[in-house]
Design a protein that fits this description.
about 190 residues, alpha/beta, 8 strands, about 40% helix, globular
Length: about 190
């Protein structure tokens, strides 16, 4: 199993769910973050937060006020960087990357440092269609789309990374996540998979 596994695909396909289920209690041992929908308005997400795998650190990085997006890049430059570069963790969760965090230079440098460290990593990467929809919804400039394309290209071409495009509740994605976890996340943990 390659050191880094990233799932990609349509929104709602179950990518984050596959990773969370595969990790189970082992998620608390990892660094990185989960992206959470933390507020809703009329059935639609109205705020998103970055949350440490153990749930002890979290901060809202995107919310909508009267339909207008408010992006807080300082969440990525502080909390995001510290979660990604925590030297005490055996692996890193990146759920998800390829969004507005790519406009934060400090966070991008942290990702580059993570790749150089060769820390095992599991996560979700935003694919082209959802990235374009995000750019449109938040009126992001071409700089964002170039950064998102560059990250996807890097991960697809990297010999230590497997990027798997999954369909709706994809059994292969679930199996890949479980295999990655057995190799990199469960060391020293009794597991009943």
């Amino acid at each position: 199993m390659k050191r880094r596994l990233f799932l990609t695909g349509a929104m709602g396909a179950g990518k984050s769910t596959a990773i969370a289920q595969a990790l189970g209690d082992a998620a608390h041992r990892g660094g990185g973050f989960f992206t959470r929908r933390c507020a809703f308005h009329r059935g639609h997400p109205s705020a998103f937060s970055l949350e440490s795998p153990d749930g002890t650190k979290k901060a809202v990085f995107l919310e909508f006020h009267q339909g207008q997006p408010v992006v807080r890049q300082e969440v990525f430059s502080s909390l995001g960087v510290s979660l990604v570069l925590d030297p005490t963790v055996p692996f890193v969760i990146l759920d998800e990357v390829g969004g507005v965090e790519l406009l934060c230079p400090e966070f991008v440098r942290a990702l580059e440092a993570l790749w150089r460290r060769n820390t095992p990593c599991i996560g979700v990467i935003k694919e082209e269609g959802p990235a374009a929809a995000l750019a449109n919804a938040l009126a992001l400039e071409e700089t964002y789309l170039r950064a998102a394309d560059g990250l996807r290209r890097f991960l697809r071409e990297d010999p230590d990374t497997l990027v798997y495009r999954c369909g709706q509740f994809d059994e292969t994605a679930q199996a890949l996540a479980r295999a990655w976890c057995r190799e990199y996340a469960y060391e020293g943990i009794i597991c009943h998979l």
